[in-house]
Amino acid sequence: MTGTTISTGNTGLDVVLKGGLPRNRLYLLEGAPGSGKTTLAIEFLLAGVRQGERVLYITLSETKEEILAVAQSHGWTLDGVDIFEFSSAADVLGDGRDQSILHSWEMELGQTVQLIETEVERICPTRVVFDSLSEMRLLAQDPLRYRRQVLALKQFFAGRDITVLLIDDLSGHAEGRDAHLHSLCHGVITLERLTLDFGAARRRLEVQKLRGVDFVAGYHDMAIRRGGIHVYPRLIAADRVTTFGGEAVGSGIAELDALMGGGPLRGTSTLITGPAGTGKTTIALQFLDAACARGERCAVFQFDERIGTLLLRAKAFGIDLQSHIDSGCLTIRQVDPAELSPGEFAAAVCDEVEDRGTRMIVIDSLNGYLAAMPQEKQLILQMHELLSYLGQRDVATFLINPQQGLVGTMANELNVSYIADAVLLLRFFEADGRIRKAISVLKNRGGLHEDSIRELRIDRDGVRVGAPLTGFKGVLTGTPEYVGSAAPLMEERA
Fold first, then answer.
1. What is the pLDDT of residues 43-96, one digit of tens each?
2. Which residues are CB-contacts of 421 (< 8 A; sequence separation ≥ 6)?
3. CATH number of the domain at 5-234, out of 3.60.15.10, 3.40.50.300, 1.25.40.10, 3.30.420.40?
4. What is this structure's pTM?
């Protein structure tokens, strides 16, 4: 707690709010059932308990047992949290009525508000959660009467040292959101739950308004897991600018580095594209193997194949990734395409860079990234922001982008070639009755690069790049053909 700002109890939300909520104000937390409102409200109150504050949870909709069950599911205890439910309202007022349960819908709205005010004056809390406005809307029946009572509640809390969180599940309101209610509150936080065609539901958060505070606008992905809500603030690369080194990153293979004028530069992204089986992942792992040998920390985000398969395949080509994992230089993260959101993926990348000091990142593959988020919009913009961030953090990034098909005209589902700093193109070609591979550099913003096309061989002894294929034609048409002499072609190693 600093100055006039208090923590929401959620680290990610505090980042979005650039510190927290102004104290002694009335806020609206709205969202459909299942979007995480109760969990976030409990986090808000527990933050107050940790500060030694008196806090109060007023519930018209859920029972105390239901609220305790939510807390227990996250491993929390609600010791120090006063819970006022209307089933015990008669006992609180001490009016001598025999009934032990007083249902909110059996009471007049004025009596309900009176009960709330009486309990607040008795407890004298500094944080209050009111759950929920939907019941009050049902009790009022008339929209004008409902709004008058909400305004009366606001005026009641205004004269006290209390920060209030009103919860609204948006039910009973034809338009979904109450603009008048938005205008009454100092700030509005909206939670959304989106059901996809396949995979887990996606959740996101938006701060719609917060008077007098500069917050991070837009949608922020979030997830509910044991331990609370994880909010992933939208990545803004301009907020994390650092110096740019521009040092070349070598692969340990002179001919491969020569293709790119010494190798990709730190702070740049290299797109390795081509049909399946041409060696795209192996080329990226070659750069990663050399970086780990230099003692640099590296990370692989693996969408397509399993980690065990990747380790075996790399070892077959002379790259021992397991030794780098054991030394602590390499982290390989298996990404489950059905469970990922763009914000969570960006947060994982940022954690690698900022917490581990990672200098090289491989994303394998962009098709997997796209498949993980088929209903997400603006994926290119999100990838551009992520690459800008990595560039400003001086991280060398390799993006694997398989092309559809094996020969002939090929296409990419996700065209990121224009945002990558360098593009390596791999192709199959036929010569002397054998299927061979070719490698070329289409562009390199980091400096000069060869415009030649070279043969690529990958075998048990690793990666080998041959001499320029001067008799090679048709690579850019998607139907490469070699018509020169056999002399430049590589044969098996001795």
1. 999 999 999 999 999 998 888 999 999 999 999 999 999 999 875 544 444 444
2. 264, 265, 268, 269, 270, 391, 444, 445, 446
3. 3.40.50.300
4. 0.85
